[in-house]
Amino acid sequence: MKALTARHRVNGLETPLGIEDLTPRFSWHGLGQPVGAEFEIEVSTSEEFEARAVVWTDSTLRNPETGVVYAGDPLNPQTRYWWRVRAVDQARTSAWSEPLWFETGLRAASTWSAKWITSAPLDKRDTSTLYFRTAVDLPAPVVKARVYASALGWYRLFVNGVDLTGHSLVPRWTSFDKVVEYQVYDATAAFHSGDNVVGMVVSEGRFRGRVGGAYETRIYGDHLSAIAHIELELADGTTTTILTDEKWRVGTGRIVRSDPMAGERVDMRISGDNWLRVDGDVENAMPAIPSPELPGQLIAEEVNRVAQIGHLAGTLRRTPSGAQLIDFGQVFAGVAKVRLSGPTGTTVRISYSEVLRPDGELDTEYLGFNPNRSKKDWFQRDEVILDGQVTDYTPWFTIHGFRYVAVEGLETVLQVEDVSGIVLSTDIRAISEFKAADTQLEQLWRNVTWSLRSNFTDTPTDCPTRERSGWTGDIQVFSPTAIQLVDSEAFLRRYLRNLSLDQHADGTIPVVIPSEAVKGRARGAFSFARTSVGWGDASVVIPWVLYKYLGDHGVLERQYQSAAAWVDNMEMRARTRRRRYRRVGRRLDHAREQYILDHGYNWGEWLRPGEKFAASVAKNFLGQPVVATAYFAFSARLLSRTAEVLGKDEDAVRYGQLAKNACAAWRDAFVSDGGARIGDDKQDEYVRALAFDLLLPEQRASATRRLVELIEKADFHLATGFLSTHMILDVLADEGRADIAFRLLLQQTGPSWLNQIDQGATTIWENWEGYKPNGRATASHNHYALGAVAAFLQERVGGLSPAEPGYKRLRIAPLITGELSSASIRLETPFGVASSAWVLAGTDVELTVDVPDGSTADVEVGDLRRELGSGHHVLTTTLTAGRLVGSR
Known about the structure:
Layout (H helix, E strand, L loop, with lengths): L7 E3 L6 E3 L5 E4 L9 E7 L9 E8 L6 E2 L10 E9 L11 E5 L12 E2 L11 E9 L3 E11 L1 E6 L2 E2 L15 E8 L7 E10 L1 H4 L16 E10 L4 E5 L5 E4 L2 E5 L3 E5 L15 E5 L1 E2 L6 E4 L5 E7 L2 E4 L5 E17 L6 E7 L27 E5 L5 E3 L6 E9 L10 E8 L5 E5 L2 H17 L16 H14 L3 H14 L35 H13 L2 H24 L13 H4 L19 H7 L5 H21 L3 H22 E2 L4 E2 L4 H9 L8 H14 L11 H10 L3 H8 L7 H6 L31 H8 L2 E3 L6 E4 L9 E8 L2 E10 L2 E8 L4 E6 L2 E5 L2 E8 L10
Parallel strand pairs: 2-8, 14-23, 20-28, 36-40
Antiparallel strand pairs: 1-3, 3-6, 4-5, 4-7, 7-8, 9-22, 10-15, 10-18, 11-14, 11-16, 12-13, 12-15, 16-17, 18-21, 19-20, 24-31, 25-26, 26-29, 26-30, 26-31, 27-28, 27-30, 32-37, 33-34, 35-36, 37-38, 38-39, 39-42, 40-41
């Protein structure tokens, strides 16, 4: 995984190849700039920055942490630009930063001269993978080669046998009827003078393969297709263009079937490289034909691709049935590399799972409800027919969530050196490091990180096994954690772009993004849940998270209409569509009732401890008005704050008043006894009320007391689900009950985070239990939603959080408890690396703080209050009585 380093970026990326943005955004840190410094930037078509090559310069720039938007002449397509920056103040001017480059893409749809190509029917052969190829004779060496390519289905691109794509799993998942991302490759080193062969293999991928909890196929179309636009500059001064068209050949190859969820079928008896030789061809070759299905607009990708970010060694043993079992010791997303050998025609089956059955066999049945998948279906299983040769097999067009791999049908005995776990995730850097004297807390933080990596593949997903869907509720609660763990700015911006594209015309938002529906038609097991409060609020919450942690005004502006449409829809539904809220609340007059949201299906506080799936689904048909109205008020207030930041004063007033009215109606309907009784009297009701600031000031103390009573009644265990678990510890700390927060955090028996670790968890589980009393696993063992607690570890235990957007001002305020002797957090902010580390000896505390250039920090530890400038600081204090958090 990438190390923690300083950064200069364009659109959130280091050296992007193929951006389409006419006004890219530059950001940087590490120039030693003081607070209030100005900056000078240059953008040039030359790395030497000759005056004639400079296309834009500005010497009066400020606030680089929020991004500086390009303001020069229009950028040319298919052009490499270089940029550099330096700090300027009255005392000195820094040296120029090292030049970095970015390259523009094809940009306009009219630039694409290539055709989408596919295959005529292949005699009903059992294949879901197409092999395309073309040959070109070049009269001179190649000095520059760019390939602009995409597919309907996942693809791999080859030039003269060189695999330019690898494990990228491209194109990433979008609603393909709206947009399809294309990739740009620098293929200069792969081409040569003379005969050259270009090949593309296209398989099901997200376009035609199994998708979502319903395990459906062909959601977006029927025809696997490829497109490529290749431009070559030759040493003799000429240029050559290669385009996909009917001159390309298409057929089959050794990958017979391949599905993102089901797995891959490979026949090694079919040549793997003949189709890439000049004198070779694909199997069952025929001319390509234009695709009868045309997808949405081609757009440049905006995020680093999926890549191998690590590998794991495995241990080996036999299961009772005789299968060879590989244990990688860690649940993760990826594939296994296995050395296979045996007689020609031998079939080897490779099955993947996160868990084992109590009898030691691989468990492939624990993932529960799935109406379209029977026990006989292929699922997370690859199959290889051997050709008598030794081969290191790794699947190309599938990804699995697993810790264990069972190999059946292999006559040879595997050795440790014959197996490897290939960890796949979006190639984004880690930006934080948390440490604590308690090794279980460090393990918890690592478990959250592994779950993030497993689910940050082609879109933020709920799990890498069952649905693999981009649930909006999961990323809504987890985004503040994600933005502090990895450099996820571009990744989350892309998710929001897809959210806007899939948002319904009435403002509602699908519960999964991409929506897994075409032309507004919901499909599959959850078609009844067209939208849900708490899930659709991702449209308001995630842009604000990016603003809070990165100082990013641009994303607030870009997503504003989407967020406003969602809040407007909630307002309309509350005002015009009423149903059964009185089952939970009290009868109100019309003036208040029009702000109660009780329409439609809402997932509500999903999966409280002990709740069964079917019961959770059924109760939510009642609309969950106490939850839905709370989110209505919360998002209206957050949208008002967004409008205020953007200078939309009228909207700020309007949505602020809407939030006040919804809060008042919510209190009248669901709060009694001065805040001591809320809704159904569950822990989450009080957490939401306090976190969303729904109560009157005089009601907060009573609500806090009742929350603590409920926690004590549960013997200091959590009773919260997806929507409030991420807030409960912060709420307790903010209301003066950090002692209770630590009781929950350090709880060893279930339901709790550390109980999962005691049961061997290496990732975060979907529900609190993980296993049934009979020892069989239940639900996904790799969900990140409940892992949002990592933000508390960093911000409250380590003690580092933003006091102003983008960490322009830091807040250093660790909660120091006698249960821990030390904790630390090191984090890359938009200004540079900041850190907070404390050591406790008796009641004496030593606090070490690093404040990056251009930022300041407010320190609050016990009775110590201090304002710090940039630099390295060591502070000491003694905690007086009552200042040391008593966690037990």
